[in-house]
């Protein structure tokens, strides 16, 4: 179904050509793609930009191996490397393990990353925040939470959540629990603008359900999607905050799998991806329906989406949410997750997330799916969405040709009807977007005040920036 949608969109798409544009190329610089993960182009303006990446490798040579580092590379106006700032977040004490948890840009000056370390001999786990300031050119590190653990193997799981509006982050420590212990969770919600706690408390959840998905609302509340322990197909949504702890009722025949929160008209809403009943057939994906949930009124609207495509689909990644008037548009991608086997050099390998088909889902005022169109497929790369007036510019990979080879595409969609038009930009005798802009969505940034789109193109050893001016109209 998805391939048919994409093919149809490509056949009917007209070409959107531009003149009076300018393309600049930065000097290539070296990276190690085998070590560096979570690459992001951040803190961008017309003078400088920064490439963030993390090294999160464990191994027998951890005292000398560059296994636990945060890197921030400063690039000049053309994208050439100016400086590199490195934060080693590893405690060198033997037996202390470390883990990179996640990161996000806070504002035009600051970027924050979270890490944890846990030490079975001392029965402790600690979470740190590392804030990079472009003005100061430094990382500032602070311990923000300490937890007791039973052992290294019974240390629980720490999650970092970011609100859709970028104002809040939450540390959710899901403690190790069994039949003899309570299901206790530690929650710390931070205001990213001030880097101060909003609320912090222990939450005791019933032991007959287990946590499946978490989301942080734009009002600094947490919603937990929980599944009944064992084989029973029963689910619940629990809202927790500093003052609340309650279930959010919904149709008990609906099975939610993934949870996402956003706001519209200052009210909190949830979108869950799931299915209508326990039976999953070839024509009914685990993520084949969406539930649009008004957290204030408790109203839930369930719609079909045909988000069924890949047999190996294991998750849905929400790329961007746009609210215009009474309508809500979500750009999403299918996601598959694999877990590599441990090696002598990497005892705890990170999961490998692979992104596939991109989709645009538009909800009407009542929360029903009004439109559902293809936004491009991917070969493991993230789509990128820029909102400019009533248009959406979306970069994505797509299949081109009978033998399954791929290309890169920049399309412009009219928000009203979501009809795509291919963007063509002549550069060195070829279409730039199909021959030069092969960048992951995390490595693309748009600077509106100078109408500049930056693409960081990464190979196994090198990165090069291409900047395109004045193609967004």
Report on this model:
The chain has 473 residues and is mainly beta. Helix content is 3%, strand content 55%. The chain is built from two helices and 36 strands. The protein has helices at 2-12, 432-435, and strands spanning 14-17, 22-25, 29-30, 36-42, 49-56, 68-75, 81-88, 97-105, 110-119, 124-133, 138-148, 157-162, 168-174, 183-191, 196-205, 209-216, 222-228, 235-240, 245-248, 255-264, 267-275, 289-294, 300-304, 315-324, 327-338, 352-363, 369-376, 384-388, 391-399, 406-414, 420-424, 426-427, 430-431, 444-447, 452-458, 462-469. The strands form nine sheets. The protein has a five-stranded mixed β-sheet. The longest helix has 11 residues, at 2-12. The protein is globular and about 70 Å long. This is WD40 repeat domain-containing protein. Keywords: Signal. Residues 1-19 form the signal peptide.
Let me know the number of strands. 36
Distance between the termini: 32 Å
Task: State the CATH topology.
Answer: Methylamine Dehydrogenase, Chain H
Structural class category: mainly beta
Count of helical segments?
A: 2
Q: What is the CATH-assigned architecture?
A: 7 Propeller
> How would the global form be characterised?
globular
Count of spatially separate domains: 1
Q: Describe the largest sheet.
A: 5 strands, mixed
Q: From the alpha-carbon coordinates, what is the Rg to the nearest angstrom?
A: 23 Å
The portion of residues forming beta strands comes to over 45%
Could you name the CATH class? Mainly Beta
**Global mean pLDDT:** 86
Low-confidence parts lasting 5 or more residues at pLDDT below 50?
Answer: 1-14, 60-64, 401-405
Keywords: Signal
Protein name: WD40 repeat domain-containing protein
